[in-house]
Structure formats: structure tokens, C-alpha cells
Design goal:
By secondary structure, this protein is of the alpha+beta class. The chain is built from eight helices and 16 strands. The protein has three domains: 2-67, RNA-binding S4 domain (Structural Genomics Hypothetical 15.5 Kd Protein In mrcA-pckA Intergenic Region, Chain A, Roll), CATH 3.10.290; 82-164, Pseudouridine synthase (2-Layer Sandwich); 169-319, 2-Layer Sandwich (Pseudouridine synthase). It is 21% helix and 31% strand. Helix 1 (18-24) packs across helix 2. It is globular, with a radius of gyration of 21 Å.
Length: 320
């Protein structure tokens, strides 16, 4: 099934790029919008456009096609969640590892949106429909931690602007290979890897600016627990940057080092058969989130404690 989304440009004082315009007025990321444009699924005043730089003027009608599986219907699913806070405007979730944020090709069910639909999210509260509803920012499937989900379109737009303006403070915890003794800063560009389109790389002179700060929280024999703060929200940013400085996140199957994972496992007196038990995923957790409340205009702060698998590995490292 394909769903046509129509957005009329109103109140524009200057022309905007079509990819920027759709991103501002939908729940899509800019990268997703650019893929829609590339596939000929975006039009301006009835004319298909194939360049993300095409201009949208005031009064323009912009349409894009959101493709869904045949006869797909977004539905509630009974998936356990840890809700840290809720009010009429947003809900704060401590997302468990293994949970995808919203339906997408390959993951049409069993997502965070499916879990929230009904009690916390209602489709009629979001203009234009779609399957992302209140998702303002995302965590990778195997990254755990704190997320804010908007409960209506007004809050969604407000929070999207905060993230775009870098007013949201996000801090993470991650366990990386090797010893890091001092605080550090990583500033690079991040772009898609030319050799693997599913991956990103910081070894590039172009792309999107990415800034990361880290500090050692706890040091072990052959690993370090880091506190990480990101100033930009690039896809896979922390994982890419840790790989870039040769201290990959433990358990990261995309940017990590399997041999170093196995060496760490051996140092903890486990065989390869214990890999999935001891290191079941990338050891990355979104720890705190701070932003301006959409109604009170006061800064609010939320913390999500790491899940059992993260704490279990920390316990083993401390014991060693």
C-alpha cells in the first residue's frame, strides 16, 4: 500500500529546499526524504522532482508517497516497556535492546511505536499519518536507553526543532576496548562508506559534521567504561567515532572488532560458546536526556539506568 502525504507551504518568507521542507513538516529524517526524492516519490505542484535542492515557495503543494506493505495496518502490540515519565505532551521510555523504534522494511511489527500505540499514542493526533507517529529521535535497535516520544503533532514539531537546534543534551554510557586515561574530543565529518552503503565512516573529508566528547568513568584491565556526550545526532555517531579512534564499542558487529571481543571474553574465563551470553549486543546505552519542556519552558532531566546485560558485563570486568 502507498500512502500519499500532502503538505501545503504556508507562511514561508523565503524558498526552502524540498528535502529541508519535508523534514520540517513530517516525521521523516532528511536522509529518508532524500531517498524518496531519488526514487521519484516526491512532487512539487504535481511535478515530480529528483533533486533534494529543488525549491519550495510559499503556497506550493508538496506531495510524497510513503510506501507500506500491501494491506499494512499499524496496530498495537503487547510489548513490555519501562516508562520513566508520561504527561499529555510526551512519554519518556527506557528502551530495551533489541527493540526497533518504528515500523520500516524488515521490521513492520514488534516496534516501539506498536508498543505505545493505543495507550500512549493515537494516530488521529498526528497529521499526515505514517508509521513513525511521535518518534522524534531514534536509538539503534541494539542500543538501550532513554528516549522522548511526542504524543501529538505540536509537541513533535517543538521537540524536532530542539533537536535540530542542538538544545537537547544527550549523554551515553559505553564499554569500549582498550584503556583510555584522559577525556577526549572527536570532531570529524561522517558520511556513508563508499564500500558498504549500510555503514558510515569518519575517514572522510566531506559529509556531515559530527562532534563527540568522552570521559573515562571506570577503567578495567582491557576495557573502559566511557561517559559520552554528542553535540550532533549523526547516524551511528558514537559507534563510528569509537571505531575511528581505535577503541570500538564492545559487541558492535558493524564497527567493532570480533577478535578483540573474543579476547575480552577469554580474559573473563569464558569460551566462544559464551559470546552471546556475555556480549549479546553493542554495549551502548543512552543514559540521560535533558530538554526544554514544551509547556512550562523549563529544562527537564531524565535518566535511564543500564539494563541487566550491560550491568552484568560491568560486574564481570570489575571482578576481573
Amino acid at each position: 500500500m502507498e500512502k500519499i502525504i500532502k503538505i501545503k507551504a504556508e507562511g514561508l518568507t523565503e524558498k526552502l529546499r524540498v528535502d529541508v521542507f519535508i523534514t520540517k513538516h513530517s516525521e521523516l529524517s532528511r536522509a529518508q526524504v532524500q531517498r524518496f526524492i531519488e526514487y521519484g516519490k516526491v512532487s512539487i505542484n504535481g511535478q515530480r522532482v529528483y533533486s533534494p535542492a529543488a525549491k519550495v515557495a510559499n503556497g506550493t503543494l508538496v506531495e510524497f508517497i510513503e510506501a507500506l506493505p500491501v494491506e499494512y495496518t499499524l496496530k498495537h502490540q503487547d510489548i513490555p516497556l519501562t516508562i520513566l515519565h508520561e504527561d499529555p505532551n510526551f512519554v519518556i521510555v527506557n528502551k530495551q535492546p533489541g527493540l526497533v523504534c518504528h515500523p520500516a522494511p524488515g521490521h513492520y511489527d514488534g516496534t516501539l511505536v506498536n508498543a505505545l500505540l493505543g495507550k500512549y499514542l493515537k494516530e488521529e493526533d498526528f497529521q499526515g499519518g505514517g508509521v513513525r507517529l511521535g518518534i522524534v529521535h531514534r536509538l539503534d535497535m541494539d542500543t538501550s536507553g532513554v528516549m522522548v516520544v511526542a504524543r501529538n503533532m505540536k509537541t513533535h514539531q517543538y521537540m524536532t526543532e530542539q533537536f535540530s537546534s542542538r538544545l537537547v543534551q544527550k549523554k551515553y554510557l559505553c564499554i569500549v576496548h582498550g584503556g583510555l586515561e584522559e577525556n577526549g574530543y572527536i570532531g570529524t565529518y561522517i558520511a556513508r562508506d563508499l564500500h558498504d552503503r549500510k555503514k558510515y565512516t569518519a575517514r572522510t573529508m566531506s559529509g556531515k559534521e559530527a562532534q563527540t566528547e568522552f570521559e573515562p568513568v571506570e577503567k578495567f584491565l582491557n576495557a573502559t567504561l566511557l561517559g559520552v556526550k554528542i553535540f550532533t545526532g549523526r547516524t551511528h555517531q558514537i559507534r563510528v567515532h569509537m571505531n575511528y579512534i581505535k577503541h570500538p564499542v564492545v559487541g558492535d558487529t558493524t564497527y567493532g572488532d570480533k577478535n578483540r571481543d573474543l579476547q575480552l571474553l577469554e580474559s573473563l574465563n569464558y569460551s566462544k560458546e559464551g559470546y552471546a551470553q556475555v556480549i549479546p549486543r553493542q554495549m551502548l546505552h543512552a543514559h540521560t536526556l535533558e530538554f526544554v519542556h514544551p509547556i512550562t519552558a523549563k529544562r527537564v532531566f531524565f535518566k535511564a539506568e543500564p539494563p541487566a546485560d550491560f550491568n552484568r558485563l560491568l560486574k564481570l570486568l570489575r571482578k576481573k
